[in-house]
Amino acid sequence: MIVAIIDGYTDEPAGLGVPPYIGLYPRYAYGAIKKARRDANVFYLTIDDLRATFEGEDGIRTKNKTPNFPKVREILEKADVIIFIGGLHTPGKYLSAVPGSVEEVAKFISGFNAVKILGGPAFMGSAKMGGVKITTRELKFAEEVFDYVVYGDLEAFLYDYFSGRDLDPFRFRSYGELQPYALLGAEVVKQFPGYPEFVLAEIETQRGCPKAMGIGGCSFCTEPVRYPLVENRPQEFVAQEVEVLYRLGVRHFRIGRQSCIFSYMAEPNGRVPIPKPEEVEKLFKAVRSAAPNVKTLHVDNANPAVIANYPEESRRIAKAIIKYGTPGNVVAFGLETADPKVAKLNNLNATPEETYEAVKIINEVGGRRGYNGLPWLLPGINIIFGLPGETKRTYELTFQFLKKILDDGLMVRRINIRQVVVFPGTPLWNMKDKVKTEKHKKLIEHYRHKIRHEIDLPMLKRVVPVGTILKDVRMEVYDGDITFGRQFGSYPLIVGVPKRLELDKYYDVMIVDHGLRSVTGIPVPIDVNRESSKVLKWLPGVGKKTLAKILAKRPFKSEDEFLNLLPPDVRGLYKGHVKL
Asked: Cα(120)–Cα(97) distance, rounded to whole angstroms?
């Protein structure tokens, strides 16, 4: 039996599966099939493989690292079952991979005779941008294209399907049932285009929202709609999966797939669950024991209300994340708005006061700079525009909140601004006529621009000042003569280098300039005798006159000979970073 799993990439409130991330769904699906049918020949394909095949290339995987990988068209022609995994619930901007939709994949697979199964969050719809409302027409289209649309857990359905059991597309699995699927499914990573060097594995720790269990979920969020009960995955299960992936060569992990890492194993307590730092530390200690030489060990979401209301417990948790993790880590705070009236109407997580306090606490514990050039642990802030109840004052309150963080000398790694997406099943679905994205379109654009220029830019200069050396930046894509790359991590900073560098190679990079959400960097050591003037002109302290002197006096015979041409106040930046 031949099975094709097509990964259209997923992005949800509590989980990411866009390369270089390999998400949960394809791994679990692969494992469930193998558990049911050991003889099944299961191929992992991406939406990019299909685009290359059907939009002009020869059908051979363009970034394939797997020897003798068959042509994509050949796999699909022979497949007995084709499984498509997709769904964007928190759409963003992606550097080197673009998620696919049901409509797109339907064009590619409709002509094949295989049984077609749709899994992942796509059954609720997908949004490639904010400010949209998912339509029932879109969801009906999925039911017309696919033989089965899975509304529960895809892996549970696939195990039943390949075992010949009765089928229930709404069935959910327990963590006990999941574990063999997760362990068997780890080997699909060997078919991931970036394997083994360029893959980051998302690891599930919890599903459902502890806050939603107490007082209901945020109006727009799909997490409590899909998973109304909170389940915590046992530490030993998490560590076992990490160990299998680690043995397969994976060195980058995010302990994610949760709405709040500080609420892992927490005691229910209405709006704000009571954290258990000993349980969180046990989790990260087990993970680090399973992956001792890990290169990236990060987290994802955190509820700032938990941190603010339980500061001592939260400090212990943050220290444990730092102790066992790696620098450059980010906990994303879902503030969404600083307007208390909008927050109440939409049943949001935290107040501005709680979020500010949480930002302070994380800065105190995690603000020191780590060995990769970034602070160990910083907060991120999520903002959503277009929520019901918004007025012009709403946007100003949110701006002033962010400005206070900046003015008080605190750091946030990034501010994520989205326009709300209305999904069926969420409380917002019944409030969709009150969504403000169209009515406030000009206001939204004005304040997005204002935040980017007046908050993001100076904040980025604080987080990564000129002269900062970012270690192990992987170069990913070209844009003209600029090469863009990122470190591995939860929310990696995009670095643009003003020259063409070899892709899929790591570089240490000195930060020389700042954009609104990205930075410009120069690889170090700097080859001052051979580097082009187009690159040298970016160096701090190198104006037109200094550049002319550098070019005239090359080749330099010593570092000091080069440094003496520079202003005294910048010479320290280059000490030890000059190549002759």
From this structure: 18
d(CA 5, CA 25): 10
133-175 pLDDT tens trace: 667 677 788 888 999 999 999 999 999 999 999 999 999 999 9
Q: Which of 325, 315, 411, 312 lies closest to 376, judged by CA?
A: 325
Q: Tell me the CA end-to-end span of the chain in Å, nearest whole number.
A: 59
How confident is the model over 334-346, as pLDDT tens digits?
999 999 999 999 9
- Residue 119, beta-bridge partner list: 85
Question: E-strand spans in 133-205?
Answer: 148-149, 200-204
Ordered alpha helix ranges (H), 482-570:
533-536, 544-553, 559-563
- Please tell me what DSSP assigns to residue 470: E
pLDDT above 80 (res 477)? yes
User: Do residues 455 and 402 touch, judged by C-beta distance below 8 A?
Assistant: yes
Question: DSSP string of 124-139?
Answer: G---SSSS-B--HHHH
Q: What is the mean pLDDT of residues 273-282?
A: 98
Of the candidates 359, 280, 360, 382, the residue with the CA atom closest to the CA atom of residue 325: 280
Q: Going by C-beta distance under 8 Å and a sequence separation of 6 or more, which residues neighbour residue 407?
A: none
DSSP 492: P
Quote the tokens at residue 103.
């409509």
Reported as a single tens digit per residue, the pLDDT across 74-131 is 999 999 999 999 998 888 888 888 899 999 999 999 999 999 999 999 888 777 776 6
Contact 521, 497 (CB under 8 A): yes
Which residues does residue 81 pair with via DSSP β-bridges, in sequence order?
Answer: 3, 115
- DSSP strands (E only) in 401-505: 415-419, 469-479, 482-486, 494-497
Percent of the chain whose pLDDT exceeds 90: 88
| CA atoms of 157 and 170, how far apart (whole Å) | 8
Beta strand extents in 225-299 (DSSP E only): 231-232, 252-256, 296-298
Whether residue 568 is predicted with pLDDT greater than 70 in this model: the reply is yes
Cα separation of 103 and 127, whole Å? 12
| Cβ-Cβ contacts under 8 Å for 223 (sequence gap 6 or more) | 12, 13, 14, 207, 208, 209, 212, 217, 259
CB 485 within 8 A of CB 499: no
The helix (H) or strand (E) run that includes residue 446 is helix 441-451
